Structures are given as structure tokens and as C-alpha cells.
UniProtKB/TrEMBL annotation:
Main location: membrane
Taxonomic lineage of the native organism: Bacteria, Pseudomonadati, Acidobacteriota, Terriglobia, Terriglobales
Membrane topology: Single-pass membrane protein
GO CC, alphabetical: membrane
UniProt cross-references to InterPro entries, sorted A to Z: N_methyl_site, Pilin-like
Subcellular location: Membrane
Transmembrane segments: 23-44
Protein's name in the database: Type IV pilus assembly protein PilA
Keyword Transferase in record: no
UniProt KW keywords: Membrane, Methylation, Transmembrane, Transmembrane helix
Organism: Edaphobacter dinghuensis
Length: 179
């Protein structure tokens, strides 16, 4: 009886080992791959949409930040008025005290004019000359997506009044208020 029990146990061990070596069949692997493919086709567009929305939110906040930096610049350098350059609003704090050419009001990436899939610029500067010095009295901040439809859908603009507007085509013809 013990010999029969030992033979049965040995046979069961061999069968278990054979089943473990079999692995998945080709059909099982194809089914798993198709399910993964279906899930990816549903998830990837949503991820891209979330990334665009995040970039657009970042662009709005960056336009606000540049507008606030312009107001601080105007307060710190009243003879110059506003700045007509992002680099003048930037600057490295390690280089010394802030100046009109490097006011140290923006982070380096924003002062370079590029952040989160958007390109930023200060345009349409209006100047007046007072006591032989140019004073910038108005400006427009623009933010356009690097690739319309991929990094963002909307363009954003603001001016010295800090009212942010949007361009639904992704350009700088901002006529609609942001929502």
C-alpha cells in the first residue's frame, strides 16, 4: 500500500511539473494583448487631453505671473514704466542686486519665454519720452501653444489691465474672456 501511495505521489508531482512548464497558449496571449490594446486606445487620448488642459492652466497662471511681475517692475523702476522684455523681468539672484535689465521677478524658464508647451512674449509696447528717457506705458503679454492641438488648443493674452483673454484658434487674436 505504501508503494502504491508513493507511486501515485510521484506521478502527481510529475504531472504538476508538466503543467507548470506548459505556460500560456498562443490564444490566451492574444486575448490578453487585445484587451491591453483596447484599454490603451481608450486611455491614451484621455491622457493627452489631460496634458493639454494642464498646459493651458499653466499658461493662464504664467500670464498672470508675468502681469504681476510687470506691475512690480513698474513700481520698482517708475522712470522706465513697464518692461517690454521677459529677460528684463528675469535675472539670476546670484548675480547681485536686481536692476532694470534683470529685475529678478520671474523664474528662469518663464523669463526665457517657454514653459509647459507654450511660448510667451511681451509685445505691442507703447513708449513715451519723458526727460529724454523712454517710458513704456502699455504692453501685451501673449502665450501661444508650441503645437496647436497637441500642447494646447487656446492662445492667451493680457495687457497692463491684467484682464486675461483667449483666442480659440491658438493664436494671439484674443477676443474672448477666459472661462
Amino acid at each position: 500500500m505504501t508503494k502504491l501511495l508513493a507511486k501515485t505521489t510521484a506521478v502527481e508531482r510529475v504531472q504538476t511539473a508538466q503543467r507548470a512548464e506548459e505556460g500560456f497558449t498562443l490564444i490566451e496571449l492574444l486575448i490578453v494583448m487585445s484587451i491591453m490594446l483596447i484599454l490603451m486606445t481608450l486611455a491614451v487620448p484621455q491622457l493627452l487631453k489631460l496634458k493639454k488642459t494642464g498646459n493651458q492652466t499653466s499658461a493662464i497662471n504664467s500670464v498672470r505671473t508675468i502681469g504681476q511681475a510687470e506691475l512690480q517692475y513698474n513700481s520698482a523702476y517708475p522712470a522706465n514704466g513697464f518692461s517690454c522684455s521677459l529677460t528684463a523681468l528675469g535675472g539670476d539672484p546670484k548675480s547681485g542686486a536686481p536692476t532694470a535689465q534683470a529685475a529678478q521677478l520671474l523664474t528662469p524658464d518663464l523669463a526665457e519665454g517657454h514653459k509647459a508647451g507654450y511660448t510667451f512674449a511681451i509685445t505691442n509696447c507703447q513708449k513715451v519720452t519723458i526727460n529724454n528717457q523712454d517710458m513704456v506705458t502699455s504692453f501685451e503679454i501673449t502665450a501661444v501653444p508650441d503645437a496647436v492641438g497637441k500642447t494646447g488648443d487656446l492662445g492667451f493674452c493680457s495687457d497692463e489691465n491684467n484682464a486675461i483673454r483667449q483666442d480659440p484658434t491658438g493664436g494671439t487674436n484674443c477676443t474672448q474672456p477666459i472661462q
